[in-house]
Amino acid sequence: KKSNYELLERFEKVLSEYFDNGGLLENGIPTVTAIAAQLNISPNYLGTLLRLNTQQNTQQHIQNKLIDFAKERLSTTNLSVSEIAYELGFEHPQSFSKLFKQKTNQTPLEFRTSFN
User: Fold this and answer.
1) CA-based R_g, the chain, Å
2) Closest by alpha carbon to 58, among 66, 70, 46?
3) d(CA 61, CA 77)
4) Cβ of 27: how many Cβ atoms within 10 Å?
5) Residue 2 — pLDDT band, cuts 50, 70, 90?
6) How many other CB atoms sit within 10 Å of the CB of residue 30?
7) In 1-116, which ranges are continuous DSSP H helix?
8) Which pLDDT does position 100 carry in this prediction?
9) Cα(65)–Cα(72) distance, rounded to whole angstroms?
10) Taking Cα atoms as reference points, which of 9, 13, 31, 32 lies closest to residue 21?
11) Do 29 and 92 touch, CB atoms closer than 8 A?
């Protein structure tokens, strides 16, 4: 149990550092394989561990972190939705908007308007 908890903390730390240190701009959205490699575990083991402890798979965690980061950018900057999408590693702003709406039930612009 303790080692699983420590591994989950390391997962969150690796993910946060990736987002905070420009990993999105340089490499795009992190893959499950890349995150697992940084933790020196298999992608399947990481997925199983996360599912058992959080009822979400690794991809869902990455997407939730991405949405949290997007919300922060939408609420604290005047960047356009397209600029934020590119900053987050999306090749197409429409893909970002679709994911954002799927996760929040709002478009990025609706979120920005409701926040302000």
Assistant:
1) 15
2) 46
3) 24
4) 12
5) low
6) 20
7) 2-20, 23-27, 32-38, 43-54, 58-76, 81-87, 93-104, 108-115
8) 97
9) 11
10) 13
11) no
